[in-house]
Amino acid sequence: MLLWRRLLTGTHYEASVEPLYYGNQYFLFVYETFRDVRLVGAPPSSIGKFGGDTDNWMWPRHTGDFSLFRIYADKNNKPAEYSKDNVPYKPKKFFTISAKGINEGDFTLVYGYPGSTRQYVHSEAVRYLIEKSNPHKINLRSIRLDIQNKYMDESAEIRIKYAKKNASVSNAWKKWQGESKGIKRLNTIEMKRQYERDFTDWASDKQEYSDVVRKMSHLYGKLGPYSFAWEYYNEAIMVNEIIRIARSVSSIASRNRDKSSGESDAMVKEALRSFYKDYYLPIDKESFVLLLEEYDKNVPGDLKPLEYRKMKKQYGDSREIVDYLFENSVLSDSVLAYRALDEKGATFLENDVVLDFYNLFSTHYSKVIRPEINKISEQLGLLYRSYMKGHIEYGKYKDVFYPDANSTLRISYGNVSGYKPADAVYYKYYSTIEGIMEKDNPEIYDYNIPQELRDIYKNRDYGKWEQNGTVPVCFVATNHTSGGNSGSPVINAEGELIGLNFDRVWEGTMSDIHFDPEVCRNITLDIRYVLFIMDKLAGANHLLDELDVVWD
After folding, report:
1. pTM to 2 decimals?
2. Is residue 259 classed as helix, strand or coil in its secondary structure?
3. Measuring CA to CA, which residue among 342, 23, 32, 57 is closest to residue 175?
4. How far is CA 8 from the centre of its chain?
């Protein structure tokens, strides 16, 4: 048994060994995991999601995105499963909260778990992303968003049903556009190609590295068509709602074959209930037709399922195929679906045309496309290990050489700073309550703030949270953050909590691949706005009394 496993045996600690620098280094991460975590409070969604998807990835931002939780432990202050006997955890260390404010140039440190970055990826991977992957994915999601928005604008009921779905589709759609724009602006592909030429020249007499760049380029050429087909499978086939519920029901029935029929049936019924509650067939069907047309137009024939190609010949265009599926599946009508479930049980979808359609795609992509992607990716992984080792020896970027994020604990340091996104445009480093009131509109769901906040603003009832006649809301800094950093604490030079990281600016969304300190900014909720909301809007002084807040 490994030493670290022996040391942790019999303790409540958990550990994992994670690779950094593409497997050239390994680090042991030891965790003390608390599982009894209870929600204490959160702002109304009109504060916590103010601006909705319109403001997502954008600056200036006025979103009060925070929640309050309390950690509970057993009587010995150790992690424990939930129990009414658990007591509030007492940590050895905790952050003092700073109400002193921030100024441009102040040091900031973000402490959290960024998901994934690809700073050292090969130029061919970036070229594929910008020239093929992002444009097609953006187009496919634009189709879905246009259809959803059309129906959402016509009906408040549909808008409520599809608000969360619409935001989910839009999130990456918006990010991909900013990412592509930033990479093109920075000329990232050519910069990487030049580095690769320099690296190859340096490695010409080093057998381990001399041919690694060429081999990677060759493998990316092989990988591209399979990756493209896989992305179309996920963005044009699997996103259709009727396909997703067929997969979900089939999966539930398959996983629970050994359970009693009543238990399995109940689980399927709950899945159906959740699905139909927020489902509008015209949106799904109209999207399906257009997405299938894009699939047919862009994915090479030899990468499509053979059975689908036969179906295409039989039924003709995409609309006729979709009409056939919706007209012959019980899933297109909730009454028929529930009736079939009552009559046949959890396996009622066996031989259903939609499930058959899903299965022919799933089988093809799991047995033909995915294995090729895995095989080539494994070969690339070995080359990246050598390439990264060569990076380290080459040493050209030794002063700023840090490992890509992989969902392990990291810190990122920077400074509070505004930025210039375009000619003649400069964004200040902070936003205020004035910006909230400028956007406030009771007719628009995402900008309809609580009346209490309007009253507070009208009376300028800011209390001790007032600064220069206003209340600060958010600020931006130069920290390198990524997906996974939402909720990360932002600390000042004194180690005090000054905010909560929750987003990046749109102009800097290429930072996962190419970090540009001129425009890449992380967006932080100013902790003073959190305290202001707790005090003036929620009246939660009993919670404020528990916090260690410093003013100077």
Report:
1. 0.90
2. coil
3. 57
4. 33
